[in-house]
Amino acid sequence: MVEPRPELSKLSDYVPGKSIEEIRERYGLKRIVKLASNENPLGASPKAVEAFHEIADSLHLYPRGDAPKLIDAIAKKYGVKTSQIVIGNGSDEIIDMVGKAFIRQGDNCVGITPTFSVYKFTTLSNGADFIGVGEGEVRTSLDDLAKKIDGKTRVVFICNPNNPTGAYYTEKEICDFMGKVPQDVLVFLDEAYAEFATASDYPNMAAALDRFPNLFVNRTFSKIYGLAGLRVGYAMGSVEVVRALWKIKPPFDVNQAAQVAAIAALGDTAHVEATCKMNAEGVELLTREFEALGFKVLPTQANFICVRIGERAKELVTFLESNGMIIRGLTSFGMPEHVRVTVGKPEENAFLLTLVKKWCEA
Ligand SMILES: Cc1ncc(COP(=O)(O)O)c(C=O)c1O
């Protein structure tokens, strides 16, 4: 037998949100709503869809691997140099590239927990240890995180707002933290949900990149821009860090449909605003209604809410699925009593609440 690298024995499979097809096959239902993967319920920006159709005639051509137009558009939006930006096939791939470029066998990486599982996956698959700080609902303090950094630490992962809790760190907290991190440790600040944040002290860390050469800010087109199926992520940091990632980046990973759609989506502020407005209203409604049913809802700055259901959380998830509503149980995040619900369109939120009330009354 051909043996894989020994590090792989430590890895568990990624657990994605269940798909609509899966639930349709299992329960034979017509109407299925998925509020499990933090996708944009309004879909992609119409301008992105138009750009996607327009590219159909040149699908036989390779994309420009260096994606100059997309990089330029991102640079203009954030006021950073084009040499400070890297793109990837979703930010998943950027995390993977960070692992390949910076994490060595025997190193460690530190991160708040519970959080997005890909940080740990990347760390372990590169032969390093993952030191998670925090558990459950408690918002880990960045001081506690800083204390775990030692001579072997290569990368610190911070998800802000955090998936799955929705908690966030302020600009002051992040800047104070950066002051405690040695310059040779990369801080991977994952801002996948940043555009949904409404708190006035939510940071603008892209503007602080010149002050912190070891800060690396990650964003994605999968959430607010509704392009999860096309796979485009981007990250910004110092020229040196970015250059290292371009070296190991697969040459044609971000396809041309993804590139043109992402450029169009960046320019579609109306779609972004409509999404944010609907999200803020949905957060308010879902929070109020779940609380009225006696459940604890964690404050969120993202496009999802984390709800403590209690011991019967798994039962609720199964009940909802059998009625055509997919949400995310959080056992794989180490929070078996909680669920994560993506904020949907008003009618989707209403459908969810009707089912949850039915379950509570049963
Ligand atoms: C915090 C966080 N980072 C990154 C990703 C991956 O996003 P992408 O679709 O860009 O790979 C996700 C996806 O759910 C996420 O929740």
Gross morphology is: globular
- Give the strand tally: 13
Each distinct ligand: pyridoxal-5'-phosphate
Biggest β-sheet strands, sense, barrel: 7 strands, mixed
CATH evolutionary superfamily of the largest domain:
Type I PLP-dependent aspartate aminotransferase-like (Major domain)
Strand composition percent? 5-15%
Count every helix, treating DSSP H or I runs of 4 or more residues as helices.
Answer: 12
As laid out across the biggest beta sheet, the strand order is: 2-8-7-6-5-3-4
**Over all CA atoms, what is the radius of gyration?**
20 Å
In words, what does this structure look like?
- The N and C termini lie far apart (53 Å).
- 38% of the residues lie in helices and 15% in strands.
- The strands form 3 sheets. It has a 7-stranded mixed β-sheet with strand order 2-8-7-6-5-3-4, with helices on both faces.
- The protein is built from 12 helices and 13 strands.
- The radius of gyration is 20 Å and the shape is globular.
- The relative contact order is 0.17.
- By secondary structure, it is α/β, with parallel strands linked by helices.
- Helix 7 links the parallel strand 5 (153-159) and strand 6.
- The site of pyridoxal-5'-phosphate has 13 residues, from helix 4.
What's the quick description here?
This protein is an alpha/beta fold and 362 residues long.
Key structural traits:
single chain; binds pyridoxal-5'-phosphate; 2 domains; Aspartate Aminotransferase, domain 1; alpha/beta; seven-stranded mixed beta sheet; 362 residues; 38% helix; Aspartate Aminotransferase, domain 2; 13 strands
